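WARN no homologs supplied; continuing
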Amino acid sequence: MQYTILDCYTDEASGLGVPPYLGTYPRYIYGQLKTEGHEVAYLTIDDLRLWKRYQKVKKEPSEKEKTNILIYNLTKNDAEEVLADTEVLVIVLGVHVPGKYLTALPGTLQEVVPLVGDLKCKIILTGPAVFGTQLEGGKFYEKVEHDFEIKDYGVAFTELDKYALAGAEILQHIPDRRMIEIETGRGCKVGKCSFCTEPIKSKFVNRKMESVVEEVKAYYQQGARYFRLGKQADFYASDRPIELLQQIRKEYPKIEVLQIDNVNPNSVVAPGGEEITKAIVEYCTPGNIAAFGVESFDPVVVKENLLNTTPPMAMKAIRIINKYGAERGKNGLPKFLPGINIIFGLLGETKESHKKNMEALQQVMTEGLMLRRINIRQVAVLPDTYLEKHGGTKYLRKNKQYYWKWRNEIRQKIDYPMLGRILPKGTILTDVFTEMYDGKTTFCRQMGTYPLVIGVKGRLPLNQKIKIKVIDYMLRSIVGEAVE
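OK structure emitted
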């Protein structure tokens, strides 16, 4: 049977599938269908837009226009030709934690349904359970069925591994570079946070180290050179994480980017945590980030929401990561720094909560420590969670009037000066890709787990790897100039 996967891109707290990332959903489905003997094609929402909305005409932007990110991430395939032969169309979509994307815009049900309405093939919708968050937390976004999801967590990776390896062939459809996120585990060993669905599942499954390495190998052989070991709650809790990093580095030396994602601060301070930290610094590429789910530095909020990390533990973990990871690497960035997640709208939140957050962040500044990024969002009140049953949107509604003020204070007083500490003026950043235009400015970034956006005056040739010198800062981005 002829299948086509239409990737509308996914973004979850533990997994990113928005270009330049290539998410796990289309890869696993591609592998499953190939394993079952089907013919499989891969399209992006950009391919569909180019056909349906732009009549296959891709215009170069004038000097006053932005690059059109609606049709930026095209495959090698012609959507009209592929869909004419398609018997089953599998649409992958779902954004849990929407953000601002430099060169992509995820497709939504509202957009994609009219675009495929005249197709004669069978259509299947799949992807993560999706609710809007960011600064519109708790707002229902869209929900789709999980036709292809393996629901039994206990045997998930036994079934998954064969699909994961076969799925690497999907890269043959993609002409440009992609960051491949390799799933290392599912669930959470702690599993109590009020806003999270993990306590409902109450399952934790680690993927075997050998399976992770094999999937890296499969994509490496297809030409992939950018990897993130993620889609889990805590990399430190992965199966033999030090050995995992050592083996990948030894066997695949041409990997250009190797980084991680989420980390539980408690694991950093636990016995063995410093050894894992040192291994990450040694074997991963600079610019790496340990994304800490701190959520709040207010002890009242921590207690009422059963949060995993207390403020003292979070601060200790920040110091440990800085101790080993603050050294500047060959690409110009510190080797390994913590990132902080802050959530508004949790149980027990008051004006004092923001004060406690600011005090903790100011302490980081006072001690000369670094945070690579601070993510701030409103909580999503998901069904059947502790939060829904013990207050729901009560605190979101009560304190919403303060959120933009609180967020802006963090951006102005912490983020902005922190950029100057991480990247002093004159710092040279290497391996920077020119990606898109906005008028007479070229926006660039390195490949990485949370790459900084860099604005450079002038319209430089796109899709080139350059060096830039830091000359100024925006609130969360860099102003640079190209250098030889």
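Residues 129-155 have pLDDT under 50 and may be disordered.
OK
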